[in-house]
Amino acid sequence: MNLFAKSLAVVSALFLLAACDSTPGSSAGGKNGSGTSANAGNAKPGSADDLTQNVGDRVFFDDNSSILSGEAQHTLDRQVAWLKQYSNVNVTVEGHCDERGTREFNLALGERRAAAAKKYLAAAGVASNRISTISYGKERPAVIGSDESAWSQNRRAVTVLTNQ
């Protein structure tokens, strides 16, 4: 097995292990929109709640980055399948940042994050005219706080339905 295949196998195994984590605030908890929840299955199919609870409505980014991680791509792959199933649904991808940095810097970074998610969805077969983007920069934090645990939840792109 070559080095790339070994690395891919290790990364895949780590993602599988991470998916098993169900501690509060972990990326596997439904509260952060990652697609698993105690309420999974209770949402009306094709609704915003269905997207949030059963698919995952947000992806997270590293500090000062708009590069999609493997976990982010996995969530976006689930979104692609869901959007293909519900072809009448249009979405807006919201780009967000943590509280650090200037307003202007964070608006630009939020736009790059939203654009990265849109580009991924479109490249996977979702019509780009169904996807709009907006950046909120640091203006709409998901978690209030001035530490890494808060910042990591605020560095995100969130897919929201624009029609029902």
Q: Give the strand line-up of the largest sheet.
A: 1-4-2-3
Oligomer: single chain
- CATH fold title: 60s Ribosomal Protein L30, Chain: A
User: What structural class do helix, strand and pairing data support?
Assistant: alpha+beta
Number of β-strand runs: 4
Outline the structure in words.
- The structure is a single chain.
- This protein is 42% helix and 13% strand.
- By secondary structure, the chain is an alpha+beta fold.
- It has one domain: 2-Layer Sandwich (60s Ribosomal Protein L30, Chain: A), CATH 3.30.1330.
- A 4-stranded mixed beta sheet has the order 1-4-2-3.
Any descriptors?
four-stranded mixed β-sheet, 164 residues, 60s Ribosomal Protein L30, Chain: A, alpha+beta
Question: What is the structure about, briefly put?
Answer:
This protein has five helices and four strands; from the N terminus they run ααβαβαβαβ. It is α+β, with helices and mostly antiparallel strands and 164 residues long. The chain has a four-stranded mixed sheet.
What's the arrangement of secondary structure elements?
Blueprint: H1 3-19, H2 48-55, E1 58-60, H3 70-85, E2 91-96, H4 103-123, E3 131-137, H5 148-154, E4 156-161
Parallel strand pairs: 2-3
Antiparallel strand pairs: 1-4, 2-4
